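Catalogue entry: protein
Contents: sequence, fold tokens
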Amino acid sequence: MNTTRPRWLASLPHVRPQRQTVAEPRRLRITLLLEGLLLMLGIWAALTVSLPGQYGQLEVGVPSPISIWAPNEVSYVSEVLTAERQAQAANSPDNLIYVYDPQIPVQQRQNLVVLLDTITSVREDPSLTRAQRLTTLAEMPNAALEISEAQADVILTLDEVRWDQLRTQTLALYDRAIERYDFAIDERALLQLRERWLTYWLATTNLSPTQRDLATFFTESFLRVNRTLDEAATAQRREEVSNNVPPQSVRVLAGERIVSTGEIITPEIIEKLQRTGAMPRPLSWSDIVGRGLFSALLAAGFMAYAVIYEAPLAMRPRSLVVLIILINATLIAARLLLPLVPAWPHYFPLATMAIIFAVVFSGRISITASALMAAVIGVMEQDALPLAITLVATCVVAVLAVRSADRILTFFIAGVSVAMTAFGMTLAFWLMDSPSFQSATISTALIPMLLFAGMNGGISTILALGVFNLVSRAAGQVTPLQLMELAHPSRPLLRKLIREAPGTYYHSVAVGNLAEAAAEAVGADALLLRVGAYYHDIGKTIRPYFFTDNQMGRENVHNDLDPMTSAQIIVDHVREGVKMAQAEGLPSQIVDFIATHHGTGVIRHFYQQALQQQDSVNEADFRYPGPRPHTREQAIMMLADSVEATVRSKAQNGKLAPSRTSDGQVSGGLNGAMALDELVKSIIETRVREGELDLAPLTMHDLTLIKQAFVTSLQSIYHPRVDYSPQTGR
């Protein structure tokens, strides 16, 4: 027994027959180191692992490999949109300034008329031969065009009617071209006329192909640009318009999808990602090292807590490994799932693990593990302190709600509590971050908050109910619900105990009452103790009549046996009980009670008989195999078993006196009878003196409380009776 918190590494038992053994000190140190390393690697992986493309560089014009949502609400002036609006305003056709000369089309038409009149006069000049006419047309000076000999030959070949028709259609074609663009022809209009309109219009006339070619030649030759762009004035206008464009403001809501998988990246998307802090950034070596250091510190802190404040768990490598694996799996799941629902990370069902840890292990380790996971998730989500606080709050509420977990209803209560807490915390942070208080906005936000909060609570409850039993079996832990099942009298071993060793069964029930009262006094696991008490003596069912519990009306069979044989039969009930419990598949915690409820104590009665009969006796032959109790519950079980058996024996033999009263009277009785409180005290002191409680984390104050609980419970059973003398008649 320790008067202060035990030094866990110096107080490890060396031999335990249970299925899950406590490791040797050196081996345990190595195991704890490896477990801490496993936890660190899991946290490190959760902080660095990502979805495909999550840490890749996004490039403009390339499809996005992932979908990204805005983690926060952000308002900013967009340089990209402002530049686009300025470019659109500057490139508007309204900003083009032209220099326009309306006289050029008129003058060019006059020149065309003069040319056609000149050709007509050459055609009609009787003084010229055909050869001279060809030469005159080919050498006719004109700045607009130069007639080739082939064209001149065609002109002279046409008769008067066809020439007049050509002349008329040419002037009409020119006029139509000028009117088409309202006497304002620029380079673009001139190009369209030459490539499209002149050919189209001539096709609607009755001119021959030869005439059409000449009409096109004459018209194109005299079409001139009379509308030109003023570069300087246009540039000035564009600059003025661009400067007048107001800055473009952008508001990105929290949870808004910025880019979808496969969407082409644009400069606007890049800007949104940068402004909202959602831009994927490749992890550098410093990032990786920093996250590794952070993981190592968290893992070291958690393992130190487990070793110092949860020593029974730390001494069970199997349980601690399962706990660490679940922590790592939860963090990696959060890393992979939260990017898929970035708008609502506050509703990640972390409370599932809190409920499972509280039911399978303990509330304290559950809160500690939940705080660790919430801190990691907060760092994972860009140092989101409100997120971490919300997750911790939901986990704490869940742990408080399932503190007993002896009914299915407690899981549903925990789910409702988680939903209410998640909703309240999210609403609180939303109100603090909201720029203005508007009832319409609140009503719009409440619906998704309520929906996701309800889903959080429901998922937490369903997953916890479905998984906790598997986790408890994997960790070798026993849950309150399992204990409630084990306590039912219909269990095979209990039925066997009731039927074949009823005296032992009632002794076990009485031990359970004492142990439960003591556990409640010192804050131990009362339910575990009661169930352990029911099973601690099941080994007596092998030879029930060799134990005084079941010898009512029978002769003591040990009277015909030698002391060593009797001692071995008594000792065997521990060994046989362990075998029976293991064969039945009872949890290791229950098996531990069977193995430790006598510790390594000596069977004094038969040992003294042997000393009287023999000169030399080996005390080890009269000792229980142990081990000694190493938890508070096992120590309480040992004391409760000893106290109940001794007090009942004293009471049956008339050697139990009333306890000392408040006024100090009656501390003992006649014929060597002992007061109840003195008897309980002497039993506890004997166990302490023999060293049976050296490994148990009980303080002197705990022992005082246990003694008081025993005495109070026993007084209600063995209190002095009032002597009702028969009345005599007068």
The chain is about 60% helix and 5% strand.
